Amino acid sequence: MIVERTLTIKNEFGIHARSAAMIVRAIEHCRSNVFLERDGARVDAKSLLDILTLACPKDSQVVVLADGDDAREVVETIAKLVDDKFGEAA
Amino acid sequence: MIPDEPKRTSVLQGTGVSPGVAIGVAHLIRRVDAPISRYQLEDKSLVSEEIRRFRKALKDSESQLLEIKRKFKDQEGLETLYILDVHIMILKDKMLIKQTIQNIEDKGVNAEWALRMTLDKYRDVFSKVDDEYLRERISDVEYAGQRILRNLAGVHHETISGIGDNAVIIARDLSPADTMQMKVERIQGFATDMGGKTSHTAIVARAYEIPAVVGLEKITSEAKTGDIIIIDGTAGAVIVNPDPEIIRRYEEKKRHYETIEDSLLKHARKTATTLDKHRVLIGANIEFVEEIPSAVQHGTDGIGLYRTEFIYINRDRLPTEEEHFCTYKKVVESKGIRFSTIRTFDLGGDKFISDPRLAAEMNPVMGLRAIRFCLREVDLFKVQLRAILRASAYGRTKVLFPMISGMEELLETKRIFNEVKKELKRDGIPYGKDVKIGIMMEVPSAVLIAEDLAKEVDFFSIGTNDLIQYTLAIDRVNERVSYLYEPLHPAVLKLIRQVVEAGHKTGIEVAMCGEMAGEPVYTMILLGLGLDALSMNALVIPRIKKLIRSVTMTECRKLVEQVMTFNTASEIEFFVRDYMRHKFTDDFEVVD
Lengths: 90, 592
Hints:
The structure holds two protein chains of two kinds. Chain A is of the alpha+beta class. Chain A contains three helices and four strands. The radius of gyration of chain A is 12 Å and the shape is globular. The interface between A and B is medium-sized, with 18 and 22 residues.
């Protein structure tokens, strides 16, 4: 099963080290292959370094793509982190 | 045996990332960044051995970071601990591991080289990121990478200890693991070769309000453990092995920095006008262009004293005219200032020329320095004058000559100055039409003939530091006589009055740019003596302005009259402090 969703980054600093770490930690044990895409670049969402190289600032759009039997849950998890601004104070 | 030479002063410019002034003793943190060599693996069987070494180094690195994290869990804020978690995640990053192993396998190289290739690839990718904060995250990758490399090299010891009090930390760069092992709250300042506004050092320094300058490029090779270091986090400058005079100046800056209150800034934008409508011009004393924005923010009308010495210090060859010019142009062009007073070279010749004839004088303060040196080395002097004049085409410029002691010196200086002007005119090089020239009034003999000197210049600027020490015959650096350094000595007050009267008789402006001008306790006295302008450390301007705005010239003059009836310095000092304490109950309670 492939699930895809476009997310808008809302937190002040974008996807920096801390938020990238939260993504990796949340999904590293899932069964799906998970990717993030921005401006034609695609990276493995289970690699902190790869996520950082996407350099997503505030207001940028990122596509989450998961392939596997828990794809729906995985995308949901990442969407929730992004929507909650990774727990950053408003 | 070679006798101990005085340590060489050097000045480095970087990015000031946490404001304030620190004066301390250097503690150099030297990393054994083992140079990385490339080895071609001769035998395919060695590949698995390299991979095993790499995995072990990852494992060791991880347990070290976990250990640091465990030890410091209770002491630090969550934020720093989180960065350690990020580093641990980098160590476990699937892409980092995958690529490095692939490099070992495909290229047949040793683990160190394979990792370096991976790190370089990330460095390349990160360098293309627009966002500065994200771009600097490469430093986190580097911290983690360096740790793996150290473990590959078998270097495990890197505990940072033995940092004394008053330490200024000097390093290539500082990682969170480094700062966590220090008692950061006891550290005076940070100076690093690398880094920018959002690097780890900067973040930690701001959090603890410790002055820091990063991006100095070569501070680790300029400074040694034990050297005296001044860090000016506001101007982004670091001074290694400053001489006592510079240290004193920065101690003053530091004191002002620590006493400035934000509430005073609201006085900054108003003019320094007394209740009976007498306006005093306020200037800032600076040594770096980078200090100007802060000076403007603190309400300066202009630059009352730009000390040009740092252009000369710390170089192997003399600064070129172009280098002088670029610096002065930046000063005079700065936004928010109405004038820039540039003082010509004011050091002993020994400061920058290794000419044995100019070597160590018995008494350098009274030796071949300042204008005396310039009049002897006319070619050097002309380079600076040309540059100042060329810069004057870009903003209102005043030139200030230091240490004039008599008419001959002044006339000779003016002759050279006019000659340079003529040369520029002949060559069709533009310069300001109305460049004012002035002299420092700091040698008692000049004060005694002030009426004559006044006819030859556009302004006077009283340098109280030297005037006091020459008048009272005391060496300020000599602790055994420094108790005699009394700004309110009746002789000093009489000399100041004499300069003001001589200047005003001829109709020229009389300013003061010594430390006394920035001491609130003396402000009323200086107003009463009739000074037209006061130039001081920028940080103290709001306080002085607030004070000026709450007094009248009438009471200031009356205070001076009363003071002049005493004949000892201690009586005057006591009287003035007591007067100020009673008049400004809030502002002078702790002054003593």
